[in-house]
Design goal:
Number of strands: 0
Number of domains: 2
Largest sheet: none
Helix content: 55-70%
Oligomer: single chain
Shape: elongated
Bound molecules: iron/sulfur cluster
Radius of gyration: 18 Å
Length: 216
């Protein structure tokens, strides 16, 4: 089985296991909110981000309100997410730029997204895939770990986020990339965890190069 065939098989099996491929951040379909929540999720759990954001969005309901907000005040709402000072500066900075340069609309392409403070390729791909339904690989910790273990890239050893993104983009069908990454998150939490993958009952065990389950 070559890499593209392996990828297609992984896609089909995880699609059966997780018919719904939903983002674990509760952003309510609002592009700017997903951008904010994506930034907050750095070194923080999605669960924590989902907990703090209702109060944050009540205080700052849209990009215009946050662009005019005070970073020190924003920081108070996101304290428990960690790195709150730099995250608060980025939230204000990205909102200001969206208002001043993009007319209040979140950009729909990688180059412009990467000009926003605090936005790297992971968040940009999240926006491109979830909001604009473009081919996009979100190389987060689950995606990097699982793709390497299965043997899709890295030959069992995790690659850098960018190398993982490029490798998966080359072998996963474009319209499956975004959903596969959401499924990797669910699968990583349920079965193929960082410390103790449950290879015994895994739907990928017969095609996974690391089915012995040694954490890598
Ligand atoms: S067989 Fe084990 S290491 Fe491979 S994907 Fe399944 S749980 Fe992860």
């Amino acid at each position: 089985m070559n890499k593209k065939e392996l990828a297609a098989s992984v896609v089909e099996r995880l699609k059966q296991k997780y018919p719904g491929a939903v983002c674990s951040l509760n952003y309510g379909g609002d592009p700017w909110r997903l951008l904010v929540m994506g930034r907050l999720s750095a070194q923080c759990t999605d669960e924590r981000v989902n907990l703090v954001c209702p109060a944050l969005f009540e205080r700052y309901p849209d990009v215009y309100a946050m662009a005019e907000g005070d970073a020190a005040d924003i920081a108070k709402y996101i304290f428990s997410c960690g790195l709150y000072n730099s995250k608060a500066r980025d939230l204000k900075g990205m909102s200001e730029r969206i208002v001043s340069v993009y007319g209040g609309m979140v950009p729909d392409n990688m180059d412009d997204l990467l000009t926003l403070p605090g936005v790297g390729r992971k968040i940009a791909n999240l926006i491109l895939g979830d909001i604009f339904r473009k081919p996009a690989v979100v190389a987060d910790t689950h995606c990097i770990r699982i793709a390497a273990r299965i043997g899709l890239c890295g030959e069992g050893k995790p690659l850098s986020p960018e190398k993982t993104e490029k490798a998966l983009a080359a072998i996963v069908e474009p319209d499956e990339q975004s959903d596969l990454c959401h499924r990797f998150v669910m699968f990583g939490r349920d079965v193929c965890s960082a410390r103790s993958p449950e290879c015994g009952g895994c739907v990928l065990a017969d095609i996974c190069v690391n089915k012995a389950g040694k954490p890598s």
